[in-house]
Write a structure and sequence with these properties.
335 residues; mainly beta; 4-stranded antiparallel beta sheet; 28 strands
Amino acid sequence: MNPAALLRPARPLLALGALLPLLTACPGPDPDEEPEWEIGLRTEVSEGAFLSAWGPSSDEIYAVGGQFEAGYMARFDGTEWATEPGPEGLPLYNWVYGTGDLLWIAANDGWTARRGADGTWSTDNLGIEDDLWGIWGSGDDDVWTVGGDFPNGVPTLAHWDGSAWTLQELPEIDREFGALLKVWGTGADDVFSVGDNGVILHFDGSTWVQQPSGVTRDLISLWGAGPDEIVSVGGRQNGVIARYDGSTWTSEIIGELPGINGVWMAEDGTAFAAANDGIVLEIEAGTLNWEKLDQSAFPDVLHGAFGLPDGTRVAVGGSLLSGAPWTGVIAQYLP
């Protein structure tokens, strides 16, 4: 029994004759009613906060995070969230992504993990102590991970070829920076990575080069719908939105918004993003125009954003601006 039920005052019973008209008059749910953003899950310090979400379908979405000393994973089955076994012994899980039959995690202290179709986890360490903040791949034998320690660390860029990870040499950069924070691409020959101090790198299948971003604020995440429709977001005190049209990045500092941490884009170029103060926003296709959609997770930080073509949207985070240990939150929009 819910203990709160014991605190409710007793209610007088209605005569059956008076009750029947009330029952028959109550309308059922409106099938045309627009769904709303809601809190799908809150976790305690025993689980921790969430940093990223990804999934192949609306009944298989993973959210990862945890605490510094141990990672945590949850899975949404289309109805509810539940704990999902993750790679054992790894510290905080920072990012999750899937390629083919494999599910990948980038974690703290240079760790990566991959889960095969049989559900078995394998782990690899890059031989570095820096944290890995993002992971993305075009296939099971073409995966990139990025990381570092900002503001004064050494950025990390590494590639998986199907059998081993290899640290990559960075191109010449026109500014100091300590970390690459996320990586995403449209294919093996069109990969982007963003980092602190406004750094953007591009890989054409053979060489990484820097691209002008037009901003020196931290760029934290990116996603796109194609090679000429990509959005990156970031900022700390104020939000930053940057859009790539296939040739040029255009960026803007958004004074009305706090830092923006995660972004996902639909096929039509409309993006939704997750920000501090529990804010979820939509970014209009082809522009830097935005609209706030929800703030039900306030005052928590929303760090990761993910969506699906059916309209499912998930924004994950927690009490990340407070000292650890953290609690977690998942805001969701389910069509």
